[in-house]
């Protein structure tokens, strides 16, 4: 899509008293989420609650007037009223005689914007039943008022309104949205796509009317305006034909589907030993393309959804896939033989598979859940999320299967985190394990992957004999959300003790798919690591009391208090009150771990200062010997080679300050896209410079060795715990930037 696209999305819940609404913020945030997807490509200004003041709306609209745009959208979800002076969208700062943004003003803004913009779309969901009126004697706004205030034009200026004049629009907690916006979101999710895979303005409007009718809503959406031809809002979705399938074509498809199933059935082997030896593997290979054929036809021809004969064939095909999901021990699969059942969870059963001298884990989707299309989609999305990650301690996937639905992944021969509080007793060692876990989560976030299901069962542990430490491995991304995903999650399915409040109350909201949910869950994981018990869901006060009892045993009281404060902040019920991002939460925990290991702030020798910086970066005691011998060590991920030095000739003596020179090397630059090494190096240096600018006294010098080399000079580092943490903070941010 060419040109710049911009959208303003406004949602207001926090009106005073009985005028408060429940789902308008969820409406606006999720519309913004969808419009920001690559299929739509909008730059979105999101104004919710306290941000949605009349001056802010006007200021944002004025800035849009100054842009050279291809497409502009204004979306509003909140109260609308009519007074003797006109119709208004009620802003959060409304007062008598200052109700908000008048539709006449909005009309002028749209008029001005449209002089430079070929396509303008106004979407208003602003009538709500049962919510009361703003002020005595004021009526709710109707589409007739909207039409008078915003006259439609023929230059592709379109208005979508939630209901007809005599109706109210409805909020429905079952859907987590107003019914109009829920239908809008379904259309934006690709259900309104046409035979080319495009979501057009006209097609979206038509879909909303049909969808409202199908869910039994009494309101009827209203469309005003004319479009200059076919106005494409989004593209790249699976094509959907909305025309009736010709009878001859329907017959051909049905006959082909029957033949596929008959061919599959004729090849099945009945004897159990034959089935385990090669029958299951053969059946899987045969059924996979048949399933894809059924899904493609069902997606491309909308009327096949309701065709009883096709539906029966479709169900029969999936029943065969469900049968393949029941796997006996000794069954030969594509990558090995099933040797035992490891365990299971909410999405599937995990088998141990042995083949070609190595063990793998094979996770198979629950056959009883095949009828749940969204949950199947989440399972597949979990695989795609893990595919995007290459951290050595994020469990790697090895291959995806469609019949049965499942995927192979790296086998980690160790306990999960549920068992570790009984194994690791030293508080500093527990925090070190948590920091190593946090690093895997931070890596996922750097690839725009939000895990959304962090809990003890999803952290596997492997004991490293050489380093004498437990190493965490992050797995189970079934609820993950990432930037390229095209469907937000409608249900939570997370563990109540670890899931953030926004995941439970409004799982389809943008907040429920942000990094803040991982901050909340990681805090609860840390609570479990200290106490050995699951936290009380949404019970921060009770959790804090038990945590304080356990922390009384810590040898450093100040570190214990900082941990309590850290936990309380991470566990805030409102996402915006937690740490700004996961890295900030991780940095604070690293400070606490350092204080726990070195409670005083005495001056250290230059050598000890360098050693401690190395320990903080690598997480392993091996770093000390590597640094003291003048050799290199690696980052905790194992991808970056690090060598630390100083400007002091005698490193065994104490000093007030020291300049630290860190040599960082990468032997493999893992960046997406087909770029030359020179272009990759330039991109990494740009990332480093962006971080260096935020830290006074830090410089970068280019290196010439290996695939990528750079020198980071940190001037005036205090030879004490504070200086060590400053150096760790600088270098850890730079290492994350070049490894992401």
How would you portray this structure in words?
Mean pLDDT is 83; it is low at 128-138, 484-492 and 620-629. Helix 3 crosses helix 4, helix 17 packs across helix 18 and helix 17 (606-618) crosses helix 20. A hairpin with a 2-residue loop joins strand 15 (332-333) and strand 16. Helix content is 39%, strand content 21%. The protein has 20 helices and 29 strands. The radius of gyration is 29 Å and the shape is globular. The relative contact order is 0.05. It has 740 residues and is of the alpha+beta class. The strands form eight sheets. The chain has a six-stranded mixed beta sheet with strand order 2-1-3-7-9-13, with helices on both faces.
Walk me through the topology:
Elements: E1 5-11, H1 24-35, E2 42-48, H2 54-65, E3 71-77, E4 80-83, E5 86-95, E6 98-102, H3 103-114, E7 119-125, E8 139-140, H4 143-149, E9 157-161, E10 171-172, E11 177-178, H5 179-191, E12 199-200, H6 201-214, E13 222-224, E14 232-234, H7 247-266, H8 272-300, H9 308-324, E15 332-333, E16 336-344, E17 348-355, E18 358-365, H10 373-387, E19 397-402, E20 405-410, H11 427-446, E21 449-450, E22 459-464, E23 469-474, E24 481-482, H12 501-505, H13 515-531, H14 540-551, H15 557-570, H16 582-597, H17 606-618, H18 622-628, E25 633-634, E26 641-646, E27 657-666, H19 677-692, E28 698-702, E29 708-718, H20 721-739
Parallel strand pairs: 1-2, 1-3, 3-7, 7-9
Antiparallel strand pairs: 4-5, 4-8, 5-6, 9-13, 10-11, 12-14, 15-16, 16-17, 17-18, 18-20, 19-20, 21-24, 22-23, 25-26, 26-27, 27-29, 28-29
Helix pairs in contact: 1-5, 2-3, 3-4, 5-6, 7-8, 7-9, 8-9, 11-13, 11-16, 14-15, 15-16, 17-18, 17-20, 19-20
